Amino acid sequence: MEKVGTNDLNEDFVKEVESTVKAIYSQLPSKYIGSSTMKGVSFVKFLQNIVECMNDSETLNTISIPSEYESITQFVAQVAIKEATEFYEERMNTLKNEGKLPILWEEFEETHIEYISEIDKLFFEKIIGSPKQIGSFVEQLHEKIFEFKKEFRKINFRELMIYNGNIAKKVWSRYIDNKINSFKNNEEFQAALESFELAYDKSMKKSLEANKVITSYKRNQYPAAIDHMKQLGIMNKRLAEAMYLREETDRLRREAFERTEAIRIETAAFEREREKFRENFESKISELQKNIEEQRKFNGEMNKVLEDFQKF
């Protein structure tokens, strides 16, 4: 019988069997693996394994419910991890494929937290097992998500560098390159530098990458422009040295801010993500505790039935 495909059976027979099975299972109490409710893919997998084992005429092994439970727990976890990582990758790819990158890091982290929170919620609904097992499965999931997140961070970093680099190149050309041979004095040159920075600040996407771009200009283009002004005789050596020092000081200040800002963004994102995770995890633990109480209640009722039966 096990070799007969469903499509080979009488259609009315199949419908009747499906209806009967649904009626039976709709009346059954909840099934558990440990303190986790066995439902959906876990219950289907459990029944499938049991039926396959029973129908296998060559098997010499006795069905072991505990080993089946462990097998199903691992199976469900891996399915849930795979689905969750695919969901995250698909959502994040949407940002890239729809041309929404680059985005500011605060928005990037908010988007990540939104997706990971949704993933955690769906993940906790599916996985089964003890709290220790669930913790291990969550760790596996977050390790995979972290790897995907790193890749998307690299993409956004690159896009931010390109975007802000193009802005800097455009305004540098407008205010410095196209006019550097026409400045009459140092005041005009410094005013042009200020105009460059104002125009850049107005058009850039404010981010650590924007800061990297401007510090790169202060390390490279600024000294080159100052040297050119010296060669033209518009700026003397003493004034040039003063400008070198001023721009170098500003560059170091910006780099220090960059490091501090990176820590601030990462810390804030970590705290928000941890809070969302705590909410979902506590909800799962609450479910497990409720299941334990249900099992205790059921066991108590069964013990009472047995006691009453023994009185006869």
UniProtKB/TrEMBL annotation:
Highest taxon above the source species: Eukaryota
Protein name: Guanylate-binding protein/Atlastin C-terminal domain-containing protein
Species for this entry: Rhizophagus irregularis
Taxonomic path: Eukaryota, Fungi, Fungi incertae sedis, Mucoromycota, Glomeromycotina
